[in-house]
Specification:
The chain is an alpha/beta fold. The protein is 40% helix and 13% strand. It has helices spanning 4-12, 58-70, 89-98, 114-123, 137-143, 148-161, 180-189, 214-233, 249-260, 265-275, 312-317, 322-328, 336-340, 344-347, 352-359, 373-376, and strands at residues 2-3, 27-31, 75-79, 102-107, 127-131, 166-172, 194-199, 240-244, 284-287, 292-294, 305-306.
Length: 379
């Protein structure tokens, strides 16, 4: 994840009063259920309308939260499937909050009404990310249900008007990329505070066809960076732009600033290096609906353990997988273009799940890197 707006503020308006949070820094994405009320072509979880009966129970989930608190997990992202379909969602969120864990909710928004807004407020969920992948029928077609756009937009407005920090989430694919300017316009018009652009991260070959090609990815990211710079200069309203699932965004941002504003390029590089790029298995973990722990939601072929059998702390401290050990030790013998790249310390090797889906090689190059051969050899 690249917090573009926050990084640009660090470059152009450094804050000398920054404080450390004193937590472990680990972010856990928890797919609470595999059940979903929509049918989206880019779904990494392969969510279904019917749930398997062996998902973690409330009692098991409470035990996991206790362990995450002992591990001093920084943020818990409650996801799915569609997490609102899980009846104990707000009970679990409230318990996590009581244990000192900040919770965010990732939802398609179609089920949120005033009753859910009240429960979100009572549970202490600090942020709600709602997906919109286009305007009107474009979104409905992508999400597989007529009326989904209207329901999601209504949920965004209900949350915003209730004082909940709410943001848009858009999946950047070959189908949705053309909608990006309209999404940004909606973001501005609705006076929202955060926009998260998620690149297509496929974990199986069947979904490759909707991934955006490098040329259009560059065009899209150039537009995103221009908008982030525009928002940075507008002090009348605070807006945050974040991208995820393509860590080539970091060197691309550096190269953009180096070209347009070379005086600030060294500071940009230093901050991006500190961020470190992809954090899978290092600062990012995933728990699936059945308790299996993965480096991230897209590396489902790597299971580090199961919270039904061991504590999360034990699993995370002793992952027992050579890939994770290498990523943590920054000893990364990448193949192909990634092996030749001079920006590894900025991107961290990008998505290993996508590389495996494309090459059947955990150390293969990420096919969604959109830097040119000339750019990766610049350092």
């Amino acid at each position: 994840m690249l917090r573009i707006s926050r990084l640009l503020k660090g470059v152009y308006y450094p804050d000398s009063n920054g404080k450390t949070h004193g937590r472990s820094g680990i972010v856990v994405i928890w797919n609470l259920t595999n059940r979903c009320n929509l049918a989206c072509p880019h779904c990494y979880a392969d969510a279904k309308s019917r749930v398997k009966t062996d998902e973690l129970s409330t009692r098991e989930a409470i035990r996991v939260i206790d362990d995450l608190a002992r591990k001093k997990v920084l943020v818990l992202i409650l996801s799915g499937g569609e997490p609102i379909l899980r009846q104990d969602l707000y009970e679990l969120a409230k318990y996590a909050k009581e244990k000192g864990i900040s919770c965010a909710l990732s939802t398609n928004g179609t089920l949120i009404n005033e009753s859910h807004v009240k429960k979100i407020l009572e549970s202490g969920i600090g942020y709600v990310g709602i997906s919109l992948d286009g305007i009107q029928e474009k979104h409905d077609e992508f999400r597989g249900r007529q009326g989904a756009y209207g329901a999601s937009l209504e949920a965004i407005r209900l949350c915003r008007d209730a004082g909940i920090k709410v943001g848009l989430r858009v999946s950047l694919t070959s189908y949705t990329a053309s909608e990006l300017p309209r999404i940004f316009h909606l973001f501005e018009e609705e006076k929202l505070v955060k926009l998260y652009i998620s690149h297509m991260n496929y974990s199986n070959k069947a979904a490759r066809h909707i991934a955006l090609d490098p040329v259009r990815t560059r065009e899209s990211m150039s537009f995103v960076i221009r908008k982030a710079m525009e928002y940075l200069k507008d002090t009348s309203f605070s807006r945050e732009i974040v991208t995820g699932n393509n860590d080539a965004d970091a060197p691309f941002l550096f190269l953009s600033i180096q070209r347009e504003d070379p005086d600030h390029s060294k500071k940009t590089y230093a901050l991006l290096k500190k961020t470190g790029g992809n954090g899978s298995g290092v600062r990012l973990a995933n728990i699936d609906p059945w308790g299996a722990v993965h480096p991230d939601p897209f590396c489902r072929n790597i299971t580090l353990g199961n919270v039904r059998e061991k504590s999360f702390n034990e699993i995370w401290s002793h992952p027992g997988h050579s890939l994770i050990h290498s990523l943590r030790e920054r000893n990364m013998p990448f193949n192909g273009r990634c092996g030749d790249c001079g920006f590894i310390e900025l991107c961290g090797g990008n998505s290993r799940g996508r590389a495996f889906a494309h090459h059947d090689d955990w150390w293969g190059s990420d096919p969604s890197c959109y830097l040119s051969n000339e750019e990766i050899s610049m350092q």
